[in-house]
Every structure is written in structure tokens, then in C-alpha cells.
Amino acid sequence: MYLLSGENITCGYSSVDILSNCTIGVKRGQIASIVGPNGAGKSTAMKAIFGLLGIRKGKIFLDGEDITNLQPQERVLKGMGFVPQTNNIFPSLSVQENLEMGAFIQAKNCENMLNYIYELFPILKDKRYQQAGELSGGQRQQVAVGRALMTSPKVLMLDEPSAGVSPIVMEGIFKKIKEIANQGTAILMVEQNAKQALTISDLGFVLNQGKNLFTDTGKSLLDNKEVRQAFLGG
Amino acid sequence: MDFLNGITLIANYIIIPGLTYGSQLALGALGITIIYTVLRFSNFAHGEFMSFGTMTSILLTWLFSNLGIKLGIFPTAILVLPIAILITIFYCLIIDKFVFKFYRQQKSKSVITLIVSIGVMFFSGGLIRFIIGPGDKNFFDGERFILKAKTFKALTGLNEGLAIKTTQGVTIILTILLVFLLFWFLNKTKTGKSMRAYSDNQELALLSGINPEKVVLITWIITGTLACVAGTLYGLDKSYKPFTYLHLVLPIFAAAIVGGVGNPVGAIIGGFVIAFSELFITFAYKKIFYYLLPYEIVPNGLLQILSTDYKIAVSFIILVLVLLIKPTGIYKGKVI
Known about the structure:
Chain A has 234 residues and is an alpha/beta fold. Chain A has helices at 42-50, 72-78, 95-102, 111-120, 122-126, 137-149, 167-182, 194-200, 218-223, 225-231, and strands at residues 4-11, 19-26, 31-35, 55-62, 65-66, 80-83, 155-159, 186-190, 203-208, 211-217. The radius of gyration of chain A is 17 Å and the shape is globular.
């Protein structure tokens, strides 16, 4: 049973369907990745599940509850966190203010969560009074993930967390993602670096032309000859 | 002694008026900057909002004077300022509801909203002249000077007097207070931070659950307050004439751009840069040279770089120079 799932989603921009009858989900405490070639509809699937894009058919469930008609903000309150691919920080705000803004929607004090995030990303603690826009790509990504974690979501959705960072930084980010998942937060992510993503994923969804091509555990997808040849470069 | 006389002359005719006028411009430029960063358009109606605030202050001053309520040595306008601020905010919110909101929901380009704001400017100007008339209104009362030129002369024994008008003192103190409050609000409170977050990245602000309607509301509250205070102080210091405020938009925009568009600190610095440039360039230096140079070589002319009629041109020239040489302004702001 999925914790968060989009079932048989059909959606798109204007009249064109980008996704058709596509099912994606993640189980409690697990990592799930959406991989596939450019234009497969990976980011669109994320937007649809988070409610940034209306869907034409299908339903979205969180913890057994139908959340298809909820606004993104309401989904945040229900326990979803989303890190967009670009423009995912407030550049002129300090690191700490960025994190505080993540918890804006909550009435309760965010002190504990701040400490947890500084433990998870020690570098952010050192730079907490610096403007987030002055940080390096990898550090910005940490701010972005930290901001989304501030509401202690049940599911964290990451759109291309490794976009635009060096391979070494990327490795660090994947390590942190595993750490977050081990703490009990389910993770649903879209990744260009399919091989690395599938290595740490419990479940993988291979999309092509807006349809589910393969759905299997990360390991079996990596072993799958067809997937390897078509999407992982042999 | 002659040297001290020269210094006093400069303080009396340039420094104190410059600080006062600079404060008024800074408050105006702050209002424009806040609208520009949060609502993303250049608000040409800001001068008329200032005018509206001043008009409200004047009407309330008249009302209070008739009722016999006074504030001792201070002008009555200071007493009625809080009420005038509320009315100005209310006017801003009404204009927003019936005009700007539509263009915000249409996600119009900022140039279109700018043109809309010019419409609002003409409408507001007309409304104000309809209510209070186009003539000159002097609404100053109370004690005129904090420091009289005569008293200063008697105290120091100098030939030149230094006078500080009550309005000048009030302007500078109120400006410091207001600027301090504004920066405290923007940097220390949750709501202030959410406003900065909204101006930084609207999409992400929405995802974080920041309510845009609330941000817009607070933006107008701040703008209305700044406009009303800036306008009233300007009107108290000079005198109130609706058309003056139409011209005031130019130095205010120049201040905001010189300081760095969208940067509140820049807006304040810009206000003083413009104010002091206007005064330095249009001041007649004859008397200063009379004190500083031997009598025989003091020239006959007024030694004025430009006549005071060209005051407005000074801000124009600075504006053009800044846009040509350093379009980001003193503090790096957004380039338009």
C-alpha cells in the first residue's frame, strides 16, 4: 500500500496530454525514483502529485485519503514537502530565514526542526546568517531540502535534486537523501542520473512518453537489460 | 571667526534643509521601493498618495483647531497624523481593490501596471483638487522655531544665524523613527520576513503557505503610512499645493533609482543624495566666499551654479547620469 500515490493520472498543459494513465507512488519510509528520457513527463508527474498542475483523470492519495482536490498549501499541511528543480530558495533571505519560511505555515515553534536540519547539514549552521543566494550550488540545494523538511513532512518530493551540481556534491546529496529516508520520511524524486538514483531507491518508475514503461524495485530495474540499454547507457 | 560664519551659513542654508528635504524624499522613495519589490511595478501614483495623506492631515487639522484641540508647541498636524495615516491606507486599499488587483490577477506586465498607476495618479490628483481646491494651503501652527537665528547669534556672537524650524526637527526625528520601525519589521518579524520571501520568489512563497493577499495588504499599509507621513511633513515644511506633489514624483523616483532600485537602504541614501545635490547646485555661494576670501577678490555675481528654477532638472540630470554610468545604483539593485 502506497503512502503517497498518484493513480492512473492523465494530465498536461493546455489540451495536450503529457501523462496518460500513469501510476506513481511511494511507500512509508522508502525512496522511490521516477526516471526516464527527456520529455517523458517526470517533472509533470511531480507537479501533478503536488497539486501545482490540475489533473484530468485519476486520483491522488496520501495515507489513504483522497487529496486530489486540495491546494498545494493544504497538501503541505497534510504532510507533503516539495523541492522544485529551480528557484527553490529565497536568495536575499539568510539561510536561517529560508528555513523559517519553510515552517511559516505551522503555528508551532520550529526550534527543534531547525536543530535537526543543522545536524543533518552542518554547513548550513556555519552559514546560517549568510544570504542564501551567495551559497554554492550544493549548499543551496541543502537549503532547499532543509526548507521543505521544516514542516516534518511524511513525504518529501524532490525534483532533480542533483541538477547542476558536480558529481562529488551529487554523491553527498544522495547520501543525505538516504539519511532522511532512514529517519522515516518517504522520498519521491525525479532524477536525471538514473543509475545513482535507482541504486538508492526501493522502487523505481521508468516513464516514457507519459506512460509507465517499467515499475519494479531499484535493483531489478538496474539488472533489467532493456532498461539498461535504453536509459542507463548499457 | 569668518570661517565659523561660513560654516554656519552652510549649515543653515544647506545642511539642515538638506537633511529635512532628504528625509522627505527618503520616505517617499521607500514607499516606491516597497511597492516595486513586492508588487513589482513602478507606482507613479505615489506622489498623489502623499498628496492625499497631506490633504487628510489638513482637513483634520482644521477640524481639530475648530474643536480647540492643540498640541502645544508642536503643529496640530502631528496629533492628527495617526488618523490621517489610517485614512490614507484605506484610500490605498480601495484603489488596490478596484484597480491594481485586477491587473495583478491578470498577471499583467509591470509596464502595463505602471501605465495604470499613471491613470490612478491623474484620478487621485483630480479627486484631491476637487475636495480641497488647487490653491496654496498653509496648515502650520504651534511654535515656529526650535532654535531661532537671533538666539543663535546671541549665544555664539557670530554674524550668521542658524535657525532650526520645528518642522525640520519633527521631520528628521519622525523619519528616523519610521525607518527604524520599518527595518525592524522587515528583518525581525515573521510577517516582515514573509514579505521579503514573497518579493524574492513568489512561487516558493506560495508553496511555503505564505498568503499573497495578506502580503499585498501589508504592503499597502506600509505604503500608505510612508506616503501620508512623507506628504504631511513636506507640506508642513513648505506649504501644501496639490500640483507640487505631481512634481515631487520625479525627485522621489530619482532617489529610488540612484540608491539602487528595490533596495530600501539605497532609497534612503538616494533621497539624501538628490536633496543635497539640488541644494548644492542651486545655492548662491556669494556670501560664503565673502567670508572665506579677502574682500577685494570676491566676485560680484551670485555664484550660483543653476538658478533655483532648475531644481527639478538637477534630479533629472542625476537620474540620467546614474542610468548611463551605473544603472544598478549605489546599492546594487535590480536593473530596469
